[in-house]
Amino acid sequence: MAMYVVGHKIPDSDSICGALAIAYLKNQIGEEAIPTRLGDVSPETQFILDKFGFTAPELKMSYAGEEVYIVDHTEKTQAPDDIDEATVVGVVDHHKLGDLTTSTPLECWIRPVGCSNTIVKMMYDFYNVDIPPAYAGIMMCAILSDTVIFKSPTCTTADIKCVEALAEIAGIEDYKALGMEMFKVKSAVQGTPTRDLVMRDFKDFDMHGNLVGIGQLEVIDLSVFDEIKADLAADIIKLKEEGKRHSVMLLLTDIMKEGSLMLIASDNETIIADAYGVTVENNEVWLDGVLSRKKQVVPPLQDGFANA
């Protein structure tokens, strides 16, 4: 029986490219695997897939009775809704451990690096499997995306070395220029429905019994939000109510200024303010130096809910 390789809900480039790259690796070592996805492909991810000649993995929402290899998370809130009825056979992730559990032993590749695809590169090295140029290209782009072209505090020496190696395999001479092309695609927000923007890179977290949603939009210049910021703020209020969430936050991240404007809708704004040691005004706050949801936003907020 083939295993399905799938990332998180509302997949980003790491989830999509990781699913494709792991499925290829598994097939090369005699383990039948099919890449899938749990949502629509983002504009950035579509740019990457088009650049290297890939089609998006199959959209598959149900996995009951199937073998599943999870990429880029270990959180039930981000997994298929019927994950408890599936058999999780493996995990590749670079986040904190979540609440996914298994009844049987599984393969785990978890490392404190900037991107799951950095770990996937390590897997190819471990199994001594050659990476085709196109796969090297999408893996490289996923790392550039997750590490914000090495600007993110999550970036490690391993991420940089993997990008350099993958760029050589893919035949990309100026990978930083390609990274900027990707972020220009991310910055093109005009004309996109407000809810689509809010959900473009959105994750739910269970924080000590409270459902908290955190979205992020990474752009080259925050001025692209000048005309739509009020609409975004209004929509996260609606999203909070619709999903019975305690809080919803949207990070508007300026990769050039290296900081994020956080828009907030919350039942208790004080928890958020205390978590980051800031004063929230008009349901928003600028977080200087904050680029990473994984490392700089989620951990202090979880601590904040633990102490509330």
TrEMBL record:
EC number of the protein = 3.6.1.1
Which terms in the Gene Ontology molecular function aspect does this entry carry? inorganic diphosphate phosphatase activity; metal ion binding
Record keywords: Oxidoreductase included?
no
Query: Which keywords fit this entry according to its UniProt record?
Result: Hydrolase, Manganese, Metal-binding
What top-tier enzyme class does this entry carry? hydrolase
**Matches recorded under Pfam families:** DHH, DHHA2
The cofactors named for this UniProt entry are: Mn(2+)
Question: What are its GO cellular component terms?
Answer: cytoplasm
Q: Where is the DHHA2 domain?
A: 179-305
Q: Which domain of life is it from?
A: Bacteria
Query: What catalytic activity does the UniProt entry give for this protein?
Result: diphosphate + H2O = 2 phosphate + H(+)
| Keyword Disulfide bond belongs to the record | no
Question: PANTHER family in the record, alphabetically?
Answer: BNIP - RELATED, MANGANESE-DEPENDENT INORGANIC PYROPHOSPHATASE-RELATED
Task: Spell out the protein name for this chain.
Answer: inorganic diphosphatase
Species of origin: Opacimonas viscosa
Q: What is the lineage of its organism?
A: Bacteria, Pseudomonadati, Pseudomonadota, Gammaproteobacteria, Alteromonadales
